[in-house]
Design brief:
The chain is mostly helical. About 75% of the residues lie in helices and about 0% in strands. It contains 10 helices and no strands.
Length: about 230
């Protein structure tokens, strides 16, 4: 039987998707490169032609996930019918909904990134997330300043501060997320943090009171329901 030769991009995606499948099934920590190789029936040389390590697999999956969120935000930012505050709310709400829909990936990447062995990978992921979203949030803040909705002197610097603030919050909430299985009440603490973040950002950008609504109880409940269904 003739050997099937797959195109480079097709083979790369096949490896990524198989790794993702194993990460979901048995966890990132328990998955090894050899497991991915054996599951696909390929040689080690074929694997290492595309990826240097398991960490690179995770990095590529995280980048793919982030770019999907960026595409969602881009559509919102480019909508000429939305005000700045509608775009800002939409940016958070729609990206949040996407995360709920992909709860398996959220749990996988949280488990992986917040292990002590992956501090550098986490730093890289968080830094790139900020840089990817920064131009889009800057556009929203510039629009808000022009509309007189936001009281901002420097839209880009303010956007960076808001995003870095969000990264700080996600660092702590990730720890709570990993405790949900045994401590489901931690979801309420996460919700409290989201509400404080919401109010704080509103003040940072000088938006009207109660106009910034990035998170609500429905989102938290949807997140909790999606999480429970994966256990």
């Amino acid at each position: 039987m003739a050997r099937i030769v797959k195109k480079a991009e097709e083979r790369r995606k096949e490896i990524l998707h198989k790794a993702q499948e194993l990460f979901y099934k048995i966890g990132y920590t328990n998955t090894s490169v050899n497991m991915v190789i054996e599951a696909l029936g390929i040689s080690k040389g074929a694997f290492y032609h595309y990826f240097k390590s398991k960490e690179e697999l995770l990095d590529c999956l995280a980048e793919e996930f982030t770019q999907n969120i960026i595409s969602i935000i881009q559509k919102i930012v480019n909508d000429p019918n939305l005000t700045a505050i509608e775009k800002l709310n939409g940016m958070y709400i729609e990206s949040g909904n996407y995360k709920v829909e992909n709860i398996d990936f959220i749990m996988t990447i949280t488990e992986a990134l917040y292990s002590d062995n992956n501090l550098l990978l986490r730093y890289k992921f968080n830094s790139k997330s900020v840089e990817d979203v920064l131009p889009l949030m800057t556009v929203i803040f510039e629009q808000g300043k022009e509309e007189g909705i936001f009281n901002i002197d420097d839209p880009q610097a303010t956007a960076r501060i808001v995003l870095l603030f969000g990264i700080g919050l996600s660092e702590y909430n990730a720890k709570l997320l990993l405790q949900l299985k045994d401590n489901p009440e931690k979801i309420d603490e996460m919700h409290k943090h989201f509400m404080i973040y919401q109010k704080s950002v509103e003040r940072i950008i000088g938006a009207p009171q109660d106009s910034f609504r990035a998170f609500d109880k429905e989102f938290i409940n949807a997140f909790k329901t999606a999480y429970v269904s994966t256990k």
